[in-house]
Amino acid sequence: xxxxxxxxxxxxxxxxxxxxxxxxxxxxxxxxxxxxxxxxxxxxxxxxxxxxxxxxxxxxxxxxxxxxxxxxxxxxxxxxxxxxxxxxxxxxxxxxxxxxxxxxxxxxxxxxxxxxxxxxxxxxxxxxxxxxxxxxxxxxxxxxxxxxxxxxxxxxxxxxxxxxxxxxxxxxxxxxxxxxxxxxxxxxxxxxxxxxxxxxxxxxxxxxxxxxxxxxxxxxxxxxxxxxxxxxxxxxxxxxxxxxxxxxxxxxxxxxxxxxxxxxxxxxxxxxxxxxxxxxxxxxxxxxxxxxxxxxxxxxxxxxxxxxxxxxxxxxxxxxxxxxxxxxxxxxxxxxxxxxxxxxxxxxxxxxxxxxxxxxxxxxxxxxxxxxxxxxxxxxxxxxxxxxxxxxxxxxxxxxxxxxxxxxxxxxxxxxxxxxxxxxxxxxxxxxxxxxxxxxxxxxxxxxxxxxxxxxxxxxxxxxxxxxxxxxxxxxxxxxxxxxxxxxxxxxxxxxxxxxxxxxxxxxxxxxxxxxxxxxxxxxxxxxxxxxxxxxxxxxxxxxxxxxxxxxxxxxxxxxxxxxxxxxxxxxxxxxxxxxxxxxxxxxxxxxxxxxxxxxxxxxxxxxxxxxxxxxxxxxxxxxxxxxxxxxxxxxxxxxxxxxxxxxxxxxxxxxxxxxxxxxxxxxxxxxxxxxxxxxxxxxxxxxxxxxxxxxxxxxxxxxxxxxxxxxxxxxxxxxxxxxxxxxxxxxxxxxxxxxxxxxxxxxxxxxxxxxxxxxxxxxxxxxxxxxxxxxxxxxxxxxxxxxxxxxxxxxxxxxxxxxxxxxxxxxxxxxxxxxxxxxxxxxxxxxxxxxxxxxxxxxxxxxxxxxxxxxxxxxxxxxxxxxxxxxxxxxxxxxxxxxxxxxxxxxxxxxxxxxxxxxxxxxxxxxxxxxxxxxxxxxxxxxxxxxxxxxxxxxxxxxxxxxxxxxxxxxxxxxxxxxxxxxxxxxxxxxxxxxxxxxxxxxxxxxxxx
Length: 995
Fold this sequence. Notes:
Distance between the termini: 39 Å
Helix content: 10-25%
Structural class: alpha+beta
Mean pLDDT: 88
Oligomer: single chain
Largest sheet: 5 strands, antiparallel
């Protein structure tokens, strides 16, 4: 979802008081009374500001050329969350004062007052163009308050409860089914409140939706009523009159707060509202511990007292910025400065996720860095943000100097820099975790592989390359630059391996930085196996779960590329081929085919995670606990290495970045995550010597890129921080890995050329902001690769497939099938062929599809010749499939399918009668309308795929671009939570394609 460009938008709205005459031929109230003010103030006197250009873009993503174009920005026109005035007025006229709830009374002499007065600082490039008291401003204020109808008719927005209620209690941190509630309060709830909630709020299209924070069950059982009671107390506050539970359902005109479900109670005299208010008052009076934290940690206390008010002040909780309708960083806005206990807890947990606590530099935190000047567009320490540089209030880029003498703990939040408050919070949270031992104050050591020249390609792990040594040295960043503090030494002897015969690959650290795992072998006839070293203890052990056989059918059964998961399991690549019953070879080059597996070191149990018949290698983790890896893709006229992600339990197989050749390079691999949340990876080309290339970063919240697109207002997610000789720079590079400082440890050969037979790689450190490269260690005639630093990283757990997001699946343990509800098949296919921001070319000919189960090359196949070998513009590859069946679509493009889980599949597009389609004339490929990449569904996965095209711009447009390609079509839709899966397929039986 597109975030508001809070500082990159709009010129002044001026001369409004003189704009009272209607435009010619105007008909509606909007045309007569509102449009003239906006036309003069925003267009005629500002050289066309807020008018769409030929690409469908406008400053601030706001087009004021018509009522319909303005109405798209619904989020600007309503008072949302803590703000009592619409964002449209806050940006163009005077700011407002909000009394924001805090944990500790600001004045000890008034212990009952737990609020501070915050004056909003919501920035607007044009300043305040609407003068207080002007006729134009007054007209617009009245119109917005009455519902901004085209004809000026005041809004009557009381809505009826709709949809069937949800059986079964919900789940949330802190809820215990066994805990006995207060008998009197629970009894009053059951008698007086539960019937009101059932009648007014608990419908499946309202709070019966499992995606709602305030999720209500039907209340038919005691367990359901206990859940409803508990979750209701979590939306209360003290004083009770400001609680979200009471403010949100109340009509805005009677003092309520904006509610995505509309006005539930027309006034506070409504009998249902009185019952709710009476019970709420009794809860707060009788048991205040239900609504207020007792003794929070120092970091949580500072967040409630200082950080959350800063986020309110800067406009971060606006509806289209970081509300629950945004893609990431979902802040709960509360109600006009009041925050329920659940909202406070969620906001603290969400904000803390975006602190780089592994780094002593707070600017590495995404929460801070995205609000600083980005290094891509000037001298700054931050990263690009659609909301702008909200924390920059200084003469030079923000750093520690600007906070000298600032009292971030007690200073007036309306006066002191927000940046200094955020720095202080980072320091508090980091110090607590270093003291607990969760994080290390400094890096502990470096580990790398020192090997003979001729490292080989990224996918060629099967070739035995002896003479590799696993090297280790203690290190430090205390001086501001990475330094080795001891002479390097070999660790192979700990594992019973000899550097003369060892082939070593890709060490990776544990989350606490105390251990690392790697793969090694000592003979060409033996496969790679996994080892774990704990340097402080001087121990090495083979990891359990190794394949039971070393080779089969001429294929070595390798285990390689281990990566520690936040939950203690280990993801690794292996050629064991469990799903196929044997090791297989790739379709592209007949190399041993690696899939990803998950190992539980405690039980030695291994389960398969991916099932595609091309290489899947080099797993890692995003900060949210999702698995990342490099996946090979080979189909007709299509062959690449790209970055993918998947949940650790197997749900949500999904592209991550560089899925199409539209970025100016052919391959992407070796992805990891910097402390600021941006990805760093190696961009390369097929045939590049030793799989070397350029070091690029990407900012996923800005969406996909296109080579050569650089018009004003277009924010590129890709940063070429170290282009190689392959991509217009110099030198050749490999093996990027993050340091807590925000720098990148890598293998570098700054003077190498692409025509070299092998590359002499040193160990170097790259500073992304400047492109500066510094050599840490060199060994002439040797290649130093796969370097990592050992240090503690914040462990935020793993992302579960629990159904809690619009597209997040559920993975059930036990079933072998997968059930897929596709909400708009033509919509999702528009992403399968081209993923740019130029628009989504939906193929309206599609009326169904065939699903094909892909087959591996047969046993003993050693050359790409004979049956099922296909030749295209990129060479030869093996292609064989089994038809699972044909599925017709409903009229809205939706369908539900039951199919085998854990197999590689692809799709053939057909018309409504099953006739195979050819690619459309403007498609990026020619020939059969066949999906150019394979996908999988996990055994037991139940998933809703894609978004109906009417909601695509809301849920996906911020990353993928709008359906039309017009940036102005990307806007908030408050019905997305309940409407995204409301399709004809929702209630239909699935088409059963189980074999």
